[in-house]
Amino acid sequence: MTTEPISAAEIARARAEHPLAFRAPLPVRLRRAALWTGFSLLIAWCLYDFGFSPIRIWEGLGRLGRVLSFMFPPHVWTEWREFSEILKGLGETLSMAFLGTLLGAVFAFPLSFLGAKTINRLPVLRFGVRRGFDVIRSFETLILALIFIRAFGLGPLAGVLAIAVGEIGVLAKLYAEAIENASNKPVDGVVASGGSRLQSIRFAVLPQVLPVLLSVTLYNFESNVRSGTILGIVGAGGIGFLLADRIGAYRWDEAWSIIFLIIAMVYLIDWLSGLIRARFIGTWEGAR
Question: What is the pTM of this model?
Answer without folding.
Answer: 0.76
